[in-house]
UniProtKB/TrEMBL annotation:
Substrate binds at G75, E76, N77, L78, R97. Mg(2+) binds at D98. This is Putative 4-hydroxy-4-methyl-2-oxoglutarate aldolase. GO terms for molecular function: metal ion binding. PANTHER family: 4-HYDROXY-4-METHYL-2-OXOGLUTARATE ALDOLASE 3-RELATED (PTHR33254). It comes from Seongchinamella unica. The keyword Magnesium applies. Gene3D superfamilies: Ribonuclease E inhibitor RraA/RraA-like. It comes from the Bacteria.
Length: 159
């Protein structure tokens, strides 16, 4: 992937919205870009499992909001599903686990940090919601770019 978020910000400063600090990449891909798919979760990741396991993610990045609840919503199994279905990346307003195992899976995974536990009781998520966190609005169909310098969102593809 021959893009850099800093260059996109310079060239499209009127379109690029930058996610606030604190998000790190735990995945095996250094960069990701793609059309945004959104999902709002209530701590449990069962709806995210269904999305990553059952849908083609070619050219897509999943943005997940769990209100920064201190439970892991992505680990090794979900990253394997994301890779098998060709997702470019996942951005989570929350936490991940299995970091040793996911470091070699070639999908970018930006999150606030790590947590060993997951939320067991099944709760319902909401697909296609407009999400707001880190100073950015994430709309389904908008375009996301992420690399070592950060995560940015543009209304449409700019490269």
């Amino acid at each position: 992937m021959a893009f850099f978020t800093a260059d996109i910000c310079d060239e499209h400063s009127d379109k690029a919205n930058v996610l606030g600090p604190g998000y790190q990449n735990y995945g095996g891909a250094e960069k990701c870009r793609g059309e945004i798919i959104t999902i709002k979760l209530d701590r449990n990741n069962s709806d995210l499992i269904t999305l990553l396991r059952d849908e083609d993610g070619s050219g897509k990045v999943v943005v997940v909001d769990v209100d920064a609840a201190y439970y892991a919503v992505v680990g090794e199994n979900l990253m394997k599903f994301a890779h098998q279905n060709h997702y470019s990346g996942i951005v989570i307003n929350g936490y991940v686990r299995d970091t040793l195992q996911i470091a070699d899976i070639p999908v970018a995974l930006f999150a606030l940090g790590t947590c060993s536990r997951k939320y067991i009781p099944v709760t319902t998520g909401e697909r296609g919601a407009v999400l707001n966190f880190g100073g950015v609005e994430f709309r389904p169909g908008a375009y996301l770019y992420a690399d070592r310098d950060g995560v940015i969102v543009c209304p449409q593809q700019v490269d």
